[in-house]
């Protein structure tokens, strides 16, 4: 199963991706982790990314897509993967779709974890306090959530139009949310 997890910061994507990885027996691919690993390994794309980041710029979609293509070519992704942190905008969604179709691994499903904004602010503020992070104050969190909503609304619509989107209530215990996700994707998994 090839799955994209969508959700605002604090929605529980990382937590659920780790659980789904074990359940589905496929790798969890976080673009942030992938980027750091490629830079640390000194790969060609990692070195390009390192130069860009040293200039204080964002890594280009082309570099990220190249890293993803390389990652998708590894044997452990033959049965699928869980993608977290990408795509973040419509251009990335289009590019990812084209890449996956070109390599014969089209996306099966996009799962959006839906959580109300005020609860997200509470979750992130609680996490920030527990981790001693001063940058996650309620105002900065609201700004990040606004940017997320603005940039990812087209991504959500992209997957809806492709018939690949399911929206899952992200409020509840970790087990409750996990069960909702599994119930949403299992019929597709059984057919595929």
TrEMBL record:
Predominant cellular place of this UniProt entry's protein: cytoplasm
Domain of life, per lineage: Bacteria
Pathways per UniProt: Purine metabolism; AMP biosynthesis via salvage pathway; AMP from ADP: step 1/1
One Pfam entry name: ADK
Record region (NMP): 30-59
Catalytic activity: AMP + ATP = 2 ADP
Record has Translocase as a keyword: no
Subcellular location: Cytoplasm
Entry keyword annotation includes Kinase: yes
E.C. designation(s): 2.7.4.3
Binding site for ATP: 10-15, 127, 172
UniProt GO MF annotations: AMP kinase activity
PROSITE patterns on file: ADENYLATE_KINASE
Residues the record lists as binding AMP: 31, 36, 57-59, 85-88, 92, 133, 144
Keywords tagged on the record: ATP-binding, Cytoplasm, Kinase, Nucleotide biosynthesis, Nucleotide-binding, Transferase
Free-text domain note: Consists of three domains, a large central CORE domain and two small peripheral domains, NMPbind and LID, which undergo movements during catalysis. The LID domain closes over the site of phosphoryl transfer upon ATP binding. Assembling and dissambling the active center during each catalytic cycle provides an effective means to prevent ATP hydrolysis.
Family stated for the protein in its record: Belongs to the adenylate kinase family.
Subunit details: Monomer.
Reported function: Catalyzes the reversible transfer of the terminal phosphate group between ATP and AMP. Plays an important role in cellular energy homeostasis and in adenine nucleotide metabolism.
HAMAP family noted in UniProt: Adenylate_kinase_Adk
Name assigned to this protein: Adenylate kinase
Record organism: Marilutibacter chinensis
